Amino acid sequence: MSTELVDAGDQLSYFALSFAQPSFAKTNLESCKSSCTSNCSCLAMFFQNSSKTCFLFNDLGSFTRPSSTSGFDAFIKVKAGGIGSGGGSNGGKGFPFGAIISIALGTVFAILALLFVAFRCYKRRGRGFQESHGDSSEDDMFLENLSGMPMRFTYKELQTATNDFSVKLGQGGFGSVYQGVLPDGTRLAVKKLEGIGQGKKEFRAEVSIIGSIHHHHLVRLRGFCAEGSHRMLAYEFMANGSLDKWIFRRRDKDQEGEFLLDWRTRFDIAVGTAKGLAYLHQDCDVKIIHCDIKPENVLLDGNFLAKVSDFGLAKLMTREQSHVFTTMRGTRGYLAPEWITNYAISEKSDVYSYGMLLLEIISGRKNFVASETSEKSHFPSYAFKMMEEGKLGEIFDSKLNLDKEDERVSTAIKVALWCIQEDMHVRPSMTKVVQMLEGICPVPKPPTSSPLTARLYSGIFKSISEGGTSSGQSDCNSDVYQSAVRLSGPR
């Protein structure tokens, strides 16, 4: 087959010219053309007159048309007489080459546009899979390095156990909790973590912390699921749910009796919770700060045995560490002053939260209730005042019958007020709290509420009396300041 070189002029460039090595150097145009003509594989040639270099190309891609001359003379090999034959005004070049180039470039750009759209669609579809696959691989590596892990369930097993997540028990931290039953009849509470981010951190914290420890007053992690994008935690089922629904007054007064705990049961719950925290602080290989002690995280089994739950915000400390700096986490209304003032925290921060919890167990009410009179709105301040006036009965839940001979009432009140001292060094350890509650050691009268505590809540009282809320750190209301808002940050 006869071929010829068609002159494309100096308005055409080729992307490979920016990095390809010259086929010949120190040559001339005619020699370059002759080399391409005699080479069966050559499809195009470019000659740069300024450097006397010749470029031969066996494969062709996309041509470009620069705004100025390219500096190269371009020639394309075609079938002899196949283009522009017939002796038009262009002579030997008689063909509409500009039109051919325009069509070729338009076709190339159209193909590139289609490829770009297809790529975007693929990335959009695959993003979720890639994220979940990446998280899954990362979690698999994390889990492989853990010892003493609980059972690992498949997603299908927990989906079957929960009857496709049909019975919702409640809303926990970072996910919903569903009732489940294993084939052997074991009842479970399955927390289905929602989303990534904090949910992923909670998953790792729960598996690594609670999965390796066992105590009578800590909720037991039966197993977990880490499959694709699914992250679930399977706990032992606690028949009586969380403590908050048993100690706080219900709006439906007709059913209030069903949810009212007697003082003996409440006291046992307080002692059990204290024992669980003492174990975390003193008896584990590493010191564990729970960071989110509140009634919602104290669960009760069928016999009202208290167990601490929800370790998603927990912080680990070595035995050599006395305190640690970390981002704010926990729930408003139970946070120790050091959280708010950005001081280092320690296990004494849990002690403060426990003291706030104990006051709520004793009083049967939230520690902050805007509908109360200003004196009782912040109940801890009111409790300190009643202790000073010798009116401990005013702190006790009015829905219960107070036995003035029961020393456990005054003991619990004084222990609670010791726990919520502003100075963390004054607060007792949880081991000491257990000893005081069980009567092993005496409970001295605690110091009165600090001036700082009064200042912290003076803005709250003022906003209540004015019928509104103030701005800044004192900006809180009955719905927000109690326990509805969790403040958590990366670990």
From TrEMBL:
Statement: the UniProt record of this protein carries the keyword Protein transport: no
Occurrences of domain Protein kinase (ranges): 163-440
Signal peptide from the UniProt entry: none
Entry binding sites for ATP: K192
GO CC entries: membrane
Membrane-crossing segments per the record: 95-119
Protein name: non-specific serine/threonine protein kinase
